[in-house]
Amino acid sequence: MKVLAINGSARRDGNTAFLISTVLEELNQEGIETEMIQLSGGIIEPCRACWACGGKKNCVHKKDQFQEIYEKMVQTDGILLGSPVYTANISANMQAFLERASVVADMNRNEHLLRHKVGAAVTAARRGGALNTLDAMNHFFMLQDMFIVGSSYWSMAYGQMPGEVSEDREGLETVRNLGRNMAYLLRTLEERRKRP
User: Fold this and answer.
1) How far apart (Å, rounded) are the C-alpha atoms in residues 141 and 147?
2) Which residues on adjacent β-strands are paired with residue 81?
């Protein structure tokens, strides 16, 4: 089993990466392979609404790293999304990525590219907007027929400067619990698939 994490923060190895890494540590302890991709340093172009992805199973445009990341999403068992709160929403790169991913999946609906995968999301917030940010990522999962992982509270932690989320003990425990729940759901689904 493998989980692909996508960090939509413009800041590499910042608070969002810290929260993602916290979830991935829990998954690794359960023997689940993980990989984190950070979108920082690059730009994900928005969807062009050209519909050329129909029947192709991926976006046809190659100016950014979308194709590579989307192919990994299709091959993985679980997807962990992370974004800081930007203007009470996800980052622009995450928004562009999710829009393109949704269009590719919709244009290839009969292929079930993301169906029944496990999805989870985390966010780092300075103060407000965390619920909107989580909703945006979780709505992506819902639209793709995926299973969404919950936790003991919303999977967010507070912090502005890099590393500050490590001081939010409740937030970190919630994120750790998210990782444990994700591992549980992945294992349960794997066992179900093995039944005759």
Assistant:
1) 7
2) 6, 121
pLDDT tens digit sequence for 74-106: 999 999 999 999 999 999 999 999 999 999 999
CB 46 within 8 A of CB 96: yes
Q: Are strands 156-158 and 118-125 parallel, antiparallel or unpaired?
A: parallel
Contact 30, 19 (CB under 8 A): no
Residue 158 pLDDT? 97
Is the Cα dihedral 186, 192, 195, 196 positive or negative?
negative
Average pLDDT per 10 consecutive residues for the chain, totaling 196 residues: 97 97 98 98 95 95 96 98 97 97 96 97 96 98 97 96 96 98 97 87
CA distances from 104 to 16, 43, 73, 80, 130 (A): 26, 18, 12, 19, 27
Q: How many angstroms separate the Cα of 118 from the Cα of each of 13, 47, 115, 147?
A: 24, 24, 9, 5
Quote the tokens at residue 144: 């793709």
